[in-house]
Amino acid sequence: MPRIWRQVKNGLITLCILTTLTLGLGVATHYQEVQQLLKTYTLLRFQALEPVNTDKLMEGAIRGMVDALDDPYSTYLDSETYRQLQESVSGSYGGVGLLITLDEKDKRLMVVSPFKGTPAQRAGIKSRDYIVAIDGRDTTGMDLETAAGLMQGQPGTVVELTILPAGESNLRKVTLTREVIKVPTVDGKMLPGYPGIGYISLTMFNEQTAGDLGRQLEELRRQGMQKLILDLRNNPGGALPAAVDVASYFVAQGPVVYIADQKNTEALMARGYAHPLPLVVLVNRGSASAAEIVAGAIKDTGSGILVGETTFGKGIVQTIYPLPGGTAVKITTHKYLTPGKHDIHKKGINPDYVVTMDPQLEQQVLAAAPDPERDVQLQKALEVLGK
Q1: CB 24: neighbour CB atoms within 10 A?
Q2: What CATH homologous superfamily does 186-318+333-386 map to?
Q3: Residue 300 is a catalytic residue
């Protein structure tokens, strides 16, 4: 037998031995629990009134293991839900345009923010509104992916949401017609009447965001931009790599964010292509996750000034692990810290200048942003840049 094949054979034998020892140790340590698992499987498989196949029982076991984490952000993704999630990350899907989360206090389904120009925003749904029911189905105890799957669907079809507006006690029902949601990324322009001041709005972090931002910055510089207002209001976040790339346009050097898991803390560094300029960043309660990574990096490094309201406060990161059969599990694997080592989870980031806005006015001005005449936060940003 050639030497290489003997090495392969010995490696496989070693792997089998290690696997057997690991399983044996697990069974020996948790013998009673393994007995319970096998007994329950046998009872469900052969004694339940309604027949159930092994595939369904195995899927239920996987769901149960993930649910045991008691983490609203960790979940099992069946093949359809996983497909929908991949579509939304890549840039478009059929739905109503909402990013949702679970209120960690009472596990209720809550809006992080609506995407600009979508059915949800036009209907007046706002950050921190609760979604009580979807097509009459109570959302109590519902995981995020199931809720998202119920709201997504073929463009032109309708879905009814029962909403409890933030700070109110009366429910309202909203019927929305699904559209193709092309997840918006970057929009920018020079502000008329304010020479040299550019305005860029980031409404999501996906695979396209950093490239779109780079092209927009180049275009505004050609038009004479010398100062910039970066609008992250109602930006619900998205992909971590996109956040690091976006921050690298503004943070000249050093860490953008620290990512910590069970054992280690790793600094994700700025990419080195920043061209610093006077910068004000607009944030509000709907600025979350990846948007907070960018805002936190800019604030802690002194690369710009934050104006608006305290951000949402989502300082944890989920990783998606594909499984055989087109399914996956999404698990909270890391938390993140700003460059100043601040943990903002459930706290948010406080802006340098706090400027609150009436929710009704906020809805109107964000739908038509930039609106220097009515947007008091934008007015403050212009004042700060003028100094």
Answers
A1: 10
A2: 2-enoyl-CoA Hydratase; Chain A, domain 1 (3.90.226.10)
A3: yes
